[in-house]
From TrEMBL, chains A, B:
Keywords, comma-separated and alphabetical: DNA-binding, Transcription, Transcription regulation
Organism per entry: Nonomuraea composti
Chain spans, region Disordered: 308-335
Name of the protein in question: LacI family transcriptional regulator
Domain of life: Bacteria
Any Pfam family hit: LacI
Gene3D superfamilies per UniProt: 3.40.50.2300, lambda repressor-like DNA-binding domains
Length: 335, 335
DNA sequence: CTGAAAGCGCTTACAG
DNA sequence: CTGAAAGCGCTTACAG
């Protein structure tokens, strides 16, 4: 490879080459409009020729500002929340921040340590953590907002709100005549998975329905497939609530592989409104989560905290919407 | 919120509190083993109490090293290459680097400008760009490796290698008896999409087959669905080569919606071996790309460049593997 | 409109 | 084994 790297000029060298002082070059890069056109032109020429760009690390060393935020994710996450990231990223940019995505690994303790290190590093002015983790915000020199999985402030008020579509799903299926249910849960390290399981169990109980049980999966299609393949013949299950669309897809496949029609013999619900699920056959019934709103809202909260402003009000309406598609229908005449 | 942020101590203050010099604290954090246990204990206590962690920006200001690499992606990318990111991230960590993911937006010029700014920022020691973009590596003060979409060094030698499975797919379908083909391409701003289209056209021509044409899509299921819905009745197409699994999923759905059986009437191939495609019905025939190898290899190249070492040899065997599943079969007796 | 001085929080030789 | 001095590349008052 032609690894010809440009020698990195300093602001002093640029100033010397342009015949001005280094402060003037500094002003040039901070878009200070008070430069004389002639001065600007001289600097322009040197900058073009040497491809000079200011060292942002040095700048932030001095200004104590970086204009950078970080969003942390578990690298092991089954799937990265692309839509949320995109919305968060857009919001950050609109507010004048660069956003970097940092994956954090290990157990909750190690993850918290890594986040604290990042917080103290001076690289970023705030952190939005999508990682399930216990962190003492007071231990961090910059604001840390934890979202996605659980939120320390919404806890109690809204903790189960995220899972409330499960209630809606079970009620809907019951209204179609389903009586025996089955839940294939996501990884239990996620509060969202635990909450869905909890609400599932509560609702089944409250409505006097039967639950054939809960399979503890890992968010993967394989876990859905295996769970359904593992059901005994004649178990009577006609309604399956899967942790997400991946699990649901596997569950549908598992059912079909046993000769069960979907939704003729068994109905399946997923979660996330994955695009592929919409085009699958049968198309997946699911829960659409407005990741756009979720990402924007979380990032807006972080930015408010960074600026020392009060937190913006949370979105007034639920970001979840149950969508019924082909994979759900009435149970067979006699189970 | 209890936005109680720890006041950020400096190394001097920690030193004073611990009753040592700041250099000693510096050594403590650089794991210098020559500290007396008693000294270490004193520092330990202060660090614990105040949650002090060194300012990495100041450190790298001085050392001119950050131990950080960046990977840049187009935020508009239809889907983030999660598996590749994960492999690249793992490789970086193993080699002692932190990895940050930065999304870059805008047209190719703006993207190149953004990457150059990042390269000059002092924040990172090297950049792996997954963004299609024209950049002069010589204009960057740190190594920039462009991969995924095209690679400046492999161009000519391997540029079309990535698309060679298309040849294999067309040949396979032809061997089953297919004669009339259709290609639904991905977004043409991607070299991979252009290459697949090119190889498709070449192979169809070379084998004396018929192409009903190429639909230019955007990598989305909807584009696959629309393309198939747009085919006239009696067009005779029995074999569809889709740009990726998303497109293929939409194409299958479009075909089924017209009453065409898959694969009875029409066979469909995708690309990427998406997990959901494996569990779809019919399961998708596809191309498995070893993103693990791709991500590790690209990151290893970047790290070698950062260290001024020679580039590691590329993987000796193809990272692509054609997988035949239910969505592909012989054409109907008479088209 | 532009220049000389101080300092952001560290690490690196160099002494002791 | 530990301390005083210099400096990484910028920006921020403060003069002129």
């Amino acid at each position: 490879m032609d690894e010809v790297e440009t020698p990195r000029l300093t602001i002093h060298e640029v100033a010397r080459l342009a015949g001005v002082s280094h402060q003037t070059v500094s002003r040039y890069f901070r878009h200070n409009e008070t430069l004389k056109p002639a001065t600007r032109a001289k600097i322009d020429s040197v900058v073009q020729q040497f491809n000079y760009r200011p060292n942002l690390v040095a700048r932030s060393m001095r200004t104590r500002r970086t204009n950078r935020l970080a969003i942390t994710l578990p690298v092991s996450s089954y799937q990265w929340p692309v839509r949320l990231l995109r919305a968060a990223s857009a919001t950050a940019h609109e507010e004048g921040f660069q956003l970097e995505v940092v994956s954090v690994e290990g157990d909750p303790r190690a993850r918290a340590e890594r986040v604290l290190e990042l917080a103290a590093s001076g690289h970023v002015e705030g952190i939005l953590s999508l990682t399930p983790m216990e962190i003492d915000p007071a231990a961090s020199p910059v604001p840390v907002v934890v979202t996605g999985d659980y939120d320390d402030k919404l806890r109690g008020v809204n903790e189960l709100a995220d899972a409330s579509p499960v209630r809606e799903i079970v009620e809907y299926l019951a209204s179609l005549g389903h009586r025996v249910f089955f839940h294939i849960a996501g990884a239990q390290s996620w509060a969202s998975a635990r909450n869905r399981k909890l609400v599932y169990e509560e609702t089944v109980e409250r409505l006097g329905l039967t639950s054939y049980g809960v399979a503890l999966g890992d968010w993967s299609p394989q876990s859905g497939y295996d769970a359904v393949r593992g059901l005994p013949d004649g178990c009577g299950v006609t309604a399956i609530v899967a942790g997400n669309d991946h699990v649901a897809m596997g569950a549908v496949r598992g059912a079909l592989s046993r000769g069960w029609r979907v939704p003729g013999d068994v109905s399946v619900f997923g979660w996330d409104d994955e695009e592929l699920g919409r085009f699958a056959t049968p198309s997946l019934s699911t829960v659409a989560v407005d990741r756009e709103v979720q990402g924007r809202e979380a990032m807006a909260r972080l930015i408010a905290a960074v600026r020392g402003e009060p937190a913006p009000p949370p979105p007034e309406r639920s970001i979840n919407r149950v969508i019924v598609r082909e994979s759900a229908g009435p149970p067979p005449r006699r189970a």
